């Protein structure tokens, strides 16, 4: 973004010293001096903070021939937001509400009800996917690479849609080992094999109905906790249902592996099709019925960020692969 007005003049007009403005927007005096001399161009989030501190719009300061940043608020917010810079878009998201996500999220940005950005920390790397290994991965990368990596538990189709629309930096999807992750993946995206795990039929402790195959899930005497449409598990189970002539008529569906397993755990359903790591963690009996691989997918704009390039390098290391392989019921994909 090119500076199109006299920043220093506006600052002095308000009676602000460089040090005072630096404290308000969270930058060094050297950086501010470079921006005021137009020898350095601020990124989207910093441009917003400077404009707010000087009581002007982004267009007034960073107008000219450049486009004002698009602020994309994805969900209704109630005060707390996490944001990331993707191209010229500032994507702001609500804090994840599901229990499997909430354990791993730390807010680094705030939004008031009028969607006016009042304070922002450093931009986050935004990651979507339903595999809970992302909870470990985001925490690990935040420490090893630096900055905030934040994860939302979303099914395959929604994760790919966000990536394609430029609303996330990365997503994680899964597919049977030996198959490509999805025909919807953009050809210019980068695919990184992360982990492998067993697809399983998970049942109540003791498996009283002797459910051992995917076909068993469609028996008349079995109540099946089904995942939401758009999830990889739902696509697979629908395919099996069609093969056996079963017409799904589910009263409800579950948005995560954890919620489906808990529905079985607490006795509301007899079984579900899920990931072995989640079935084991929730105390269910489980029988493997196939092997799946989780892939990290980076959109073309994501590879422009050094933090994401460093993240893939870190994940490619032998030490990281070994750590991921030690997580119960996961195997390294390398």
Top keywords for this entry?
334 residues, eight-stranded mixed β-sheet, alpha/beta, elongated, 434 Repressor (Amino-terminal Domain), five-stranded mixed β-sheet, 13 helices, 23% strand
Q: In a nutshell, what does this entry contain?
A:
The chain is of the alpha/beta class and 334 residues long. 33% of the residues lie in helices and 23% in strands.
Could you explain how this protein is built, in words?
The protein is of the alpha/beta class and 334 residues long. It is built from 13 helices and 13 strands. It has helices at residues 7-13, 18-25, 29-36, 44-53, 58-62, 99-102, 133-144, 156-164, 232-243, 257-265, 276-281, 306-316, 318-325, and strands at 70-73, 80-86, 89-94, 109-111, 117-120, 125-129, 149-152, 170-176, 190-203, 224-225, 271-275, 285-298, 330-332. The strands form two sheets. Strands 6, 7, 8, 9, 10, 11, 12 and 13 form an eight-stranded mixed beta sheet that branches. It is elongated.
């Amino acid at each position: 973004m090119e500076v199109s007005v006299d920043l220093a003049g506006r600052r002095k007009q308000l009676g602000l010293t460089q040090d005072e403005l630096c404290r308000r927007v969270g930058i060094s005096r050297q950086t501010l001096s470079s921006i005021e001399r137009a020898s350095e161009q601020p990124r989207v989030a910093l441009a917003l903070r400077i404009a707010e501190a000087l009581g002007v719009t982004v267009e007034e300061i960073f107008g000219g021939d450049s486009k004002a940043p698009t602020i994309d608020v994805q969900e209704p917010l109630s005060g707390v937001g996490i944001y990331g810079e993707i191209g010229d878009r500032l994507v702001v998201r609500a804090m994840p509400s599901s229990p499997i996500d909430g354990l791993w999220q730390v807010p680094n940005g705030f939004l008031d009800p009028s969607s006016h950005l009042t304070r922002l920390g450093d931009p986050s790397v935004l990651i979507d996917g339903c595999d809970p290994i992302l909870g470990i991965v985001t925490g690990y990368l935040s420490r090893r690479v630096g900055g905030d990596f934040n994860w939302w538990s979303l099914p395959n189709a929604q994760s790919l849609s966000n990536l394609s629309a430029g609303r996330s930096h990365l997503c994680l999807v899964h597919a049977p080992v030996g198959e490509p992750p999805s025909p919807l993946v953009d050809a210019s995206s980068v695919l990184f094999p992360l982990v492998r795990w067993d697809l399983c039929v998970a049942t109540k402790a003791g498996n009283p109905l002797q459910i051992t195959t995917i076909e068993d899930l469609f028996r008349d005497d079995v109540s099946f906790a089904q995942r939401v449409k758009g999830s990889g598990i739902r696509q697979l189970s629908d395919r099996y249902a069609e093969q056996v002539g079963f017409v799904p008529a589910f009263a409800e569906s579950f948005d995560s592996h954890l919620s489906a397993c808990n529905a079985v755990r607490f006795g509301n359903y007899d079984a579900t099709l899920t990931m072995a790591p989640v079935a084991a963690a929730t105390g269910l009996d489980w029988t493997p019925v196939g092997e799946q691989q989780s892939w990290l997918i980076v959109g073309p704009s994501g590879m422009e960020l050094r933090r994401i390039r460093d993240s893939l390098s870190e994940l490619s290391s032998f030490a990281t692969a070994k750590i991921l392989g030690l997580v119960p019921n996961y195997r390294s994909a390398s």
